[in-house]
Design brief:
heterodimer; A: alpha/beta; 5-stranded mixed beta sheet; 4-stranded antiparallel beta sheet; 9 strands; 62% helix; 12% strand; elongated; B: alpha/beta; Rossmann fold; globular
Chain lengths: 405, 245
């Protein structure tokens, strides 16, 4: 059977190629571990700020008596029932400062309990459920519905730039409010107690939220693949040797490559942004110039990574495998689909070495929330540092490729 | 006046893992010489050329080209190198290849086109200049590679198997051209594993297992070994070398 002869030859050559063999064995394992770890996590340590001005008292009408003041401390009950693993809670005295912290993306949510919170909740509950008899100091006391005094409302300001996190916060708060309302035997919903104030009016869809990351990933894939293939081909065909024996410096060759592939990346980015805004109405409210700078700095780093990949790859097939080996995990861990906040601590350092993490964060800030230079400074500095390091390594490797060609 | 020594290698040693490719090799070539480097496959010809050009770093010893210790950026503009593989862009036309590499040597467009005309006539590809290099035969691509290597008028050229796969008539044209260049003072190191071809060289170096068995004029080699052909001389020298080891 000739097919068996062919099969044996193919398998034998795979077994002989240690790098390919290693990739075949490790790649699936690596993906499963990464996938399982990065998608199974729950939200942890989301910073929120609480302004609790609730005096904890509720003044209610009582049957056959005057009004009575109950110490119910409902805001404190709410706070104590919050999931402490999910939230990293700080307290503030000033509702405006707290709301500003949300607007500045320092915290995900600010919850303001006014002075009359307990009072309002108890009376709202009585009004809805009718008179209620409670045991107090061994005596039965019947509480009567009264007029609910108007006062400042309870306000939740939430950063909905990340709709996943905003939804998770609302859901968790609803559970805690249910605990509080349970004490009042009321069927009030959190919505009836809260003025929810989403920072972006709930206009950021899941599609908008994932678009910057997907665009970043598409650019990563195309740029790394193109660059790595081009450099490997240049080396294996011998043209790189010929170039490097000419009076040309390795940095001149590297810069030439960088300029060419940056132009390609910019063109592709323009194509990606245009089609996604025109066809799918992707939210893009920030500056196109800032996005262009992010893309250039980001893709220079990618080209460096591609050059390194090409250095350690003997041929185009190996380069392709390595590209996939590095890029598929990158999209899982870079916060494109699932926020970094949910990632287990063991995986998170990986996210912080992936340029896509910073590109995604910066693109989101500009596209979704229209933030400017100052807001993306950290991401841009990290991307620039990656780009600079990779450029230097590329120059070194470019020279070395000629030596090893 | 003695001719300038343009290639000077002393004690070159290069190993790849356990295989010794160059084994303490010394070499001196004077300006304007046509030096034929011959030896069987795996003798170390390509390793020697790559080491001399500065593409490989020797484990021991040093190589100097035009007085500069290699690797040196300074000699590159005066150095021509034709690798054994074609080392041209298949997706570019013949002329586009010449234009690109000419650009790396700071040649103007006019200079490139003048030289391209001359060299494409030499390698008999003038009428194929507009064709994609990848669509040419192996022998033709090798000729494009030779044209690229000599485009910038190097003072010193290393040509690794320039005549492999080239028909006898064109091979003769190449050797005539190499002599013309040599008359103009250009130093050429040409490798070949067709030993008889080396009769056309001023000096022949026999390389075997990373060592130079002999380097002398073809006539002196024949006389010294008492043989009638360089093939026979090579076999005699190889046997003597093995006996001496």
């Amino acid at each position: 059977m000739k097919s068996l002869v062919v099969m044996r030859n193919v398998l034998w050559r795979i077994v002989q190629d240690r790098r390919t063999l290693l990739l075949i064995v490790l790649l699936p394992l690596f993906f499963v571990l990464l996938y399982g770890n990065s998608f199974s996590g729950s939200f942890r340590n989301l910073p929120i700020v609480i302004v609790n001005q609730d005096n904890g008292l509720a003044s209610v009408r009582v049957k056959n008596a005057d009004r009575m003041t109950l110490a119910v401390d409902l805001a404190a009950t709410f706070v104590s029932s919050l999931d402490t693993e999910m939230f990293d809670i700080t307290f503030s005295d000033d509702p405006d400062t707290a709301a500003d912290a949300v607007a500045a993306h320092k915290v995900w949510a600010a919850l303001y309990f006014p002075q009359n919170f307990s009072h309002a909740v108890v009376n709202e509950a009585l009004q809805q459920s009718g008179e209620r008899t409670v045991e107090m100091d061994g005596q039965s006391v019947t509480l009567l519905p009264g007029t609910v005094t108007e006062g400042p409302s309870t306000v939740l300001t939430v950063d909905d730039a990340n709709p996943l996190i905003a939804d998770a916060i609302l859901e968790s708060f609803a559970v805690s409010f249910a605990d509080v309302l349970g004490t009042q035997q009321a069927s009030l919903t959190p919505e009836s107690l809260l003025d929810v104030n989403p920072l972006y009016g709930g206009n950021i869809r899941m599609l908008d939220f994932t678009a910057p990351g997907i665009i970043g990933f598409a650019l990563t894939l195309i740029t790394v693949m193109l660059t790595a293939m081009a450099v490997v081909r240049e080396r294996t065909s011998g043209t790189l040797t010929r170039i490097l024996i000419a009076p040309v410096r390795a940095w001149e060759v590297t810069i030439g490559y960088t300029l060419a592939f940056s132009a390609v990346a910019l063109f592709q980015a323009a194509e990606l942004f245009l089609t996604s805004t025109l066809l799918f109405d992707i939210r893009f409210i920030g500056s196109a110039a800032i996005v262009a700078v992010i893309i250039i700095v980001f893709t220079i780093g990618l080209q460096g990574i591609a050059t390194l990949i090409s250095t350690v790859s003997r041929n185009e097939a190996q380069a392709m495998q390595l590209v996939l080996f590095l890029l598929i995990p990158a999209i899982m861990i870079s916060g494109v689909f699932w926020p970094l906040e949910t990632m287990p601590a063991a995986i998170r350092p990986l996210a912080y070495i992936s340029p896509l993490t910073y590109a995604n964060a910066a693109l989101r800030k500009v596209m979704l929330t229209g933030q400017g230079w100052a807001d993306i400074a950290i991401e841009l500095i990290v991307l620039a540092a990656i780009a600079a390091t990779m450029l230097v390594l590329s120059v070194v490797m470019m020279r070395r490729q000629a030596y090893s060609a | 006046m003695a001719a300038e020594t343009v290639i000077q290698a002393t004690g070159l040693r290069k190993t790849f893992r356990t295989r010794v490719a160059l084994d303490g090799l010394d070499l001196a070539v004077e300006q304007g010489r046509l030096y034929g480097l011959v030896g069987p496959n795996g003798a170390g010809k390509t390793t020697l050329i790559r080491t001399l050009c500065g593409l490989l770093r020797p484990d021991e010893g040093e190589a100097r080209l035009l007085g500069w210790r290699m690797p040196s950026v300074r000699v590159r503009s005066q150095l021509g190198y034709m690798p054994q593989d074609f080392a041209v862009y298949d997706d570019l036309t013949v002329l586009q290849n010449l234009e690109f590499f000419g650009g790396l040597y700071d040649l103007s467009r006019r200079q490139i086109h003048e030289r391209a005309g001359e060299l494409l006539d030499l390698v008999d590809l003038a009428d194929r200049r507009g064709e994609k290099t990848g669509e040419l035969s192996g022998g033709m691509r090798r000729r494009v590679s030779l044209a690229v290597s000599l485009l910038h008028k190097p003072r010193l050229a290393f040509l690794d198997e320039p005549t492999a796969g080239v028909d006898p008539k064109l091979r003769r044209t190449f050797w005539d051209y190499f002599h013309r260049l040599s008359d103009q003072g250009v130093t050429l190191v040409v490798t070949t594993h067709q030993v008889e071809e080396a009769l056309r060289c001023h000096v022949v170096g026999f390389l075997s297992q990373g060592r130079l068995l002999i380097q002398d004029s073809p006539e002196m080699i024949l006389r010294g070994t008492g043989t009638e052909t360089l093939d026979d001389a090579f076999i005699v020298l190889q046997e003597r070398g093995e006996a001496a080891r």
